[in-house]
Amino acid sequence: MHRPKLLAACAALAVPTLALSGCGVLGIGAAPADLQIYSARHYDLEGAFGEFTDETGISVEFITGDDAELLERLKAEGSDTPADVFMTVDAGNLWNAARQDVLAPVSSAELDEAVPEDLRDPEGQWFGLAMRARTVTYNPDNVDPAEFDAQDTYAGLADPKWKGRLCMRDATSSYTQSLVASLIDLQGRDRALEIVKGWVANDVQIMSNDVLLLEAIDAGSCDVGINNHYYLARTLEENPDLAVDLYWASQEGAGTHVNISGAGLVANSDNAEQAQQLIEWLATKGQNSFVDANHEFPVNPAAEPEPVIAGFGDFTRMPLNAEAYGDLNAEATDLLAEAGYK
Amino acid sequence: MSEPAVLVDGGVPGQRRRLLTGTGRPLWSAAVLLAALFVVTPVVAVVIDGLGSLNAETLPRDLGSMVFSTLGLMAGVGAGTLLLGGGLAWLVTAYTFPLRNVLVWALVLPLAMPAYILGFVFLSTFDVGGPVQALVRSVFGSDAWLPEVRSLPGAILVLSLTLYPYVFLLARAALVEQSATTYDAARSLGAGRARTLWRVVAPLARPSLAAALALVMMETLTDFATVQYFNVQTVSVGVYLVWKGSFDFHAATQLSVLVLLFAVAVLAAERLFRGRSRFHQKTGRGEGLRVRPLRGWAGWTAAAAGVAVVSAGFLLPVGQLVLWATEEFLRGAGPMIDPRFVDYLANSIAIAALAAAVCCALALTIGHSLRLGGGRLLASAAQATTFGYAVPGAVIGIGVLIAFARLDELLEWAGVPGGTGLLVTGSVAGILCAYVVRFLAPAYQSVDASFAKISPALTSSALSLGASPHRLLARVHLPLARRGAAVAVLLVAIDAVKELPIVLLLRPFGFTTISVWVYELARENFWEKAALPALGIVAVAVIPVYFLFRRAAAPQHTTVVP
Fold it and tell me: Which residue of B has its CA nearest to A16?
């Protein structure tokens, strides 16, 4: 290729680029919406926000990203941030965002009534909107649910009878970290360490992904796993013959471990009133359009869960202690490392 | 006379290097320093941010084993890519065999496959829940022994398959640029083919191999998504573990500094590996090696080896993605093609083209300036421009955010109303800045490997004949380094299409690329839904491969040597 050709190649690259960037394809030139949202929860936001816009006339745009990264972006942008609402998954993340002063308190009687007390910040800096349960799943061909410890199912998996039969998620997963943080919170660090060491002693197979984990249980290469309930609901929807059943953990004890995704008002929002309106709508009228598609449980007792997960039966949940999950998260990762969980 | 190994060879021989001055031209030298400053600023912003709160307590407990895993992974991937990339490059350059003309460009294709997608496809195929093990169990019973795929070897295999094209591309560029005369001279002096390969061809290709390996090492170092699938805890996984685990970004940046130290070690090793011995071609342009035909089974073996690698790294995963996309379509869950797909594609292509053009131009400027001479500072500055590649994308993104926030404060303090505002933090310009910081390395490594083979005598004679630096660039350096420049454009464009954390962090509202779309679906484990956009990434990444290979296809002798 001689030089003219190289230049021609460069031009061939540059011309469409400039043409494209000139006509708004690079996100330039669009008028901003009324509300702008940073969300670490991805699933099917368009549907819920679209409904909200239809009902109220308030336009919404959002970008998704990773919770920790979005929080750093909010902090770096400071008072210049375009964001009005910050949505994230995991109570620890919500607690942390409140602690880092990026959220503003909201006092709303409507929200206080709609969201159970343990699923929202006492100061109103964040509100849980969707609930997921992290519970035990098993292959009914190889496991009789009576084998589980109904008192403390998570700890019961440390029993040697489960040796070589367990699959769980990796230590980098926030699901694993929150579960262990809740064990530390309820039973103390020493006991929690004992439990996790018990899982490790049972040669737990560590998987990097809930769906692969369910497939491994279905294939019979492990008998028992710990999963978020909605992954099972979704996989069952795609494959009704899946040989995996759900067991509500610790029903005769502390209850099943749950976590939330939620939202808070950004402290530097320039549209706090409409932002609050959106959060209120999501916690009340918008509950089902927000949670159903992802098979999550509505936090609002007035809303019914969708049929697939309703089919898993009622269960008692462990009260959620966001501060503990947040505060003990680092300790949980350290404990997992100490126990050799990897 | 012994020089420190980190010096870039350049300038006119016989000149003593001094710190600042050399025979360099001030304007060209200033350009290099500016580029270095630009790359280093976000990295330094993060480092300062991290070291401000140094605290040993936040370091992960098993840091020792993380370092160990990292070293093991780097050694394995280095060996794997060298073997695959170097071996195949030699094979397609020195021999003709069935399918060779297809393999020449097809072997680059795995570069278009993001490692995390290949990793997932690999696991869903070979892991305990996948079809392969199910088959083995149904044939040999449920207690059949199977290798553990979620392991260091598994991660090494997948990363080697996606990263070997770096070595293949640069090694091939080096081999094609070699002149046949050196090879022939060695053969006529009685050296066997293997000995000639080892003593003549390999040393000439050494700078390119070293440059490629450095890139592979840095990619391996910063990979986070793929190794996590395989349950391998490297230092980069540690960065995320600390960051997400303790909700403390500062603690995570301390670990990022450790990742940087690894990168410094890699770059120093690269200079050592290049060696102090320099080889220059007598002729400006090699005519390429003489090609010999491989006949009979030898030819088919060579073809089979190439096809096997392309299949494992590209064809089979693409097949699996097509299968998933078809299943998704048959399920009728929605329109086959999301109407926004075109938008996302356009965004990806635009940003990749911009990044490739800017990085390539900068890399050529740096290579050229070093040739004009300049002191140690300049040489170190050129090295510094490659650091960005060794920093995880998310950390660079945040570095850019912090740097712009400070700039903003500075401007406001200086009386500019509103400062830069959000012009840069959540904007395409911000993404482009971060891309340049991160991807200048592959561009510079490719261009520099080409420059390394240009004899300094060429540069000095052109200058002594009164050519201006500008003319020297246009008439001498650019034509001689054009293959490196083409590879640079290719590598940056593909990397930019695949890049995720930077776009996620810095994108403005309404700006989505295909990689973001795949991530959103993959993160929620909708692999069937993610298959189509993933194929989109692959398709976009294939464009530059095809384009450059059509144009830069090596003119080769097909002299048949009996």
Answer: B350
Angle between helices B115-126 and B514-523 (to 10 degrees): 30
CA distances in angstroms from B361 to B365, B370, B434, B444, listed in the order given: 6, 14, 16, 10
CA separation for the pair B208, B453 (Å, rounded):
9
- CA atoms of B489 and B215, how far apart (whole Å): 15
pLDDT in tens, B10-45: 444 434 444 444 456 777 788 888 888 888 888 888
Kindly list the residues from chain B whose CB atom is less than 8 angstroms away from the CB atom of residue A211: 525, 527
In chain A, which residue's Cα lies nearest the Cα of B503? A65
Residue B289, pLDDT score: 66
Candidate from A10, A25, A92 with C-beta closest to B350: A25
> What's the token pair of residue B544?
């530059």
Average pLDDT over every residue of A160-182: 94
Q: Which one is predicted more confidently, B144 or B404?
A: B404
Strand A103-104 and strand A35-39: the pairing is unpaired
DSSP-assigned letter for residue B178: S
pLDDT for the residue A144: 96
Q: Nearest by CB to A212, from B124, B510, B552: name it.
A: B124
Per-residue confidence (pLDDT) for residue A228, from 0 to 100: 96
Chain A contacts of B523, Cβ < 8 Å?
Answer: 42
Q: What is the rounded distance in angstroms from the CA atom of residue B558 to the CA atom of residue B102?
A: 16
Beta bridge partners of A261: A89, A130
Q: B159-170 burial, b if ≥16 CB within 10 A, otherwise e?
A: bbbbbbbbbbbb
> In this predicted model, what pLDDT tens digit does every residue of B291-325 receive, in sequence order?
788 888 899 999 999 999 999 999 999 999 999 88
Asked if A10 is an interface residue toward chain B (Cβ–Cβ < 8 A), one would say yes
**B244 contacts A76? CB cut-off 8 A:** no
Q: Which of A331, A46, A88, A219 is nearest to B146 (CA)?
A: A219
Whole-number pLDDT of residue A304: 96
For residue A3, the one-letter residue type is: R
Rg of chain B over CA atoms, in angstroms? 24
Per-chain mean pLDDT for chain B = 80
Range in A18-22, A114-118, A302-306, B110-114 with the lowest mean pLDDT: A18-22
B250 contact A CB<8A: no
CB-based burial, B13-38: b 16+ in 10 Å, e otherwise:
eeeebeeeebebbeebbebbbebbeb
State pTM to two decimals. Answer: 0.84
> In chain B, which residues have their Cβ closer than 8 Å to the Cβ of A28?
428
Q: Using DSSP, state whether B148 is helix, strand or coil.
A: coil
